[in-house]
Amino acid sequence: MPHSENPLDAHFHPASAPDYLPLPQLRALQLRRLRETVASAYRHQNCGLLKQRMDDAGVKPDDVNTLDDIRRLPFSVKTDLRDTYPYGLFTVPRGEVVRLHASSGTTGKPIVVGYTEDDIATWSDAMRRCLLACGLSRDDVIQVSYGYGLFTGGLGAHYGGEALGATVVPTSGGNTDRQIMVMQDFGVTAICCTPSYFTHIAEKAADFGVDIRKTRLKAGMFGAEPWTEAMRHRIQEDTGIRAYDIYGLSEIIGPGVAIECSEQNGLHILEDYFYPEIIDPETGEVLPDGEEGELVLTTLAKQAIPMIRYRTRDITSLMTEPCACGRSMRRIRRIGRRSDDMMIIRGVNVYPSQIEAALMRVKGLSPHYQIIVTRESGLDQMEIQVEITELPGDRMQDLESLKKTIAHNIFSTVGINAKVNLAEPKSIARSEGKAKRVIDKRG
Length: 443
Ligand SMILES: [Zn+2]
Description:
This protein is 29% helix and 24% strand. By secondary structure, it is of the alpha/beta class. The radius of gyration is 23 Å and the shape is globular.
């Protein structure tokens, strides 16, 4: 039963209390945890990278006396994890590490992250609060269709669901027929997976004559790949569920760093655990609230691998105005762009999410598409393959005008002429995890 201790939120639960901390208390807690984290990483990091960087910059852990002093600390980046593979950034003896996860890179060795028993508790609590923010409770049946394994998605959602006291169904990714059977037969009320995999599940369900609106499913927590507001509307309209954006990354903890609340307007960062900054990606300078830049995160309660000022490569901005849900934790705008995903086509910066938004505005298209980039006679070419939901007989004119509309939408969004190919329904490969939207053949 929902508690009514906070009149602002019908779903208030004692575990959510930190989300509503008064700001002076929250800032004091953050400062205390920041000082502890910096001191520990400075002294105990196996590779000594942070100590070396801080010494070079002439900064000592004791110099951190206000939250703004965080700006004096050096950044850390993804290659730090790779360069010190596998355990260089760990700050506890291996005997205290109870779990390892790894994320595969595009090249070479993966990055390895570790958790102490307390880290697992922190992570479970973060995920539990995320699920609460989406209106879930112990009465829910949560299907976890993220992959279980070295990837943090599956086990992260799993532990959070159990900590909430909900019934967790660990289907992992794949075997879509069985996912649909489980969803129906087990009375699943919420699902955790990538948004692209959910669109695949929904499509297959329709093929089987299963109407998701008639199942008990009411919410999805979707993450692990960028997706757009347009895609959210599409999912909500097609299936009748509420689609929430969840954010996280293995380097920081896994899923559970930030979550949308019932307002679905920005993601609350769990600020008692993760301290956010927005920087200019070129200069590294901290930007004022509201300005768009690269998200930088510092862990405030992580033991095995504390991360100081980690550059996420995700582009967003901080929203500091109060949220109607009453949470005091600041929000980040939905992340539509990762600097890693940026394609440079004919000298123009293009993000897959811009293409997605342009496509989703057109009626008659499925949410399945691919962007193929090639180079012909030294000139970049962008081709969009997108499925139409049904073939309009042989009305070639309709198809031609549909293509024109799509090309026009893309041109007005990114300023590039794209070749548009309408694909037959269900002809583009479906993903059971992160969708492969871009095929860059330029080498
Ligand atoms: Zn809110």
